[in-house]
What we know:
Layout: H1 3-18, H2 30-44, H3 51-69, H4 75-81, H5 83-107, H6 111-119, H7 122-128, H8 136-160, H9 168-178, H10 182-189, H11 194-209, H12 211-228, H13 240-254, H14 264-286, H15 294-333
Amino acid sequence: MDPQNCFTFFIALLGYLLAKVPGFDHVGQLAPAIIIAVLYRQILGYPEIIRAGIGFSSKRLLRFAIILYGLKLNIGTVLHDGLGLLVRDTGVIIFAILLTVWLAKCMKADKNISLLLGVCGAAAIAAIAPIVKSKDEDTAIGVGIIALVGTIFAITYTILQPILPLSAVDYGIWSGISLHEIAHVALAAAPAGDDALAMGLLGKLGRVFLLVPLYFIFMYIMKRKSQSQDHSDNKIEFPWFLIGFIIMSIFGSYVLGSLIPVSTGFMDGVSQLTTWYLTAAMVGLGLNVSLRDLRNKALKPLIAMGITSICLSILYSRKFYESRSQSIYHSSNS
Length: 334
């Protein structure tokens, strides 16, 4: 291992250990690692001697983590059992992006950070950031806000679950299509039982599946925007890492477990390795954050995303409740 990369891995390890502490165990290791990296930058300054290692983590390692992330996506399951969820997931993504961007415009919030928050999820932000030419600082802020808001909402869901007029399956779907990260979905849906957890994860995986078309849509929009503004530098790098993501998804869906038998422990290990690489990449981004303008840049996008998340949660929970009420009504009359 390159000594310059050891520093980001060390902070990632600190974030991993902190995530094991009671109180932080529901947050995951991404948020603590980013916080430690940001605090290090503000207190001790930017470690210039390992600039190359930080750049490697925040760019190359990040893309490698997204490629490995493809193994978490079972395409067969999503297409076989989750076609209805894919339609809902599409609606959620469109709703979240449009409302967040509109609120940001009304509040005169930072456009770049607000757009990143609209796509929801650390992997989605990491994939979209190069397209919209986001600074490492803005990308790290976006991931940090996602981790914070997602954790708050997941805990709130868990508290409300026993009193909500939703079946376990409906509650799981609601969690999967409205919460921000797989860890948040697992945290919120698990207390409702195995069926709720399975449907929640399926709903979230559907949004991961839609990351690919979303990326190409953004690439097309930014390409057209650059051309209309007559920019000479309108070249957008082809997303080779997303091709790797697709290949790994196909490999994990149709080869591992069927043609090549693997244990659950092996897949858990791959999942942990993916999270580890993603955490180290977030450390690289966090070390590029300067808190000097953070309050001015992050507060309004945070408010916009919070409003969007609340609207999304209320809208879809109400839809599930009304659907269930109509089903009960028709059953009683038949």
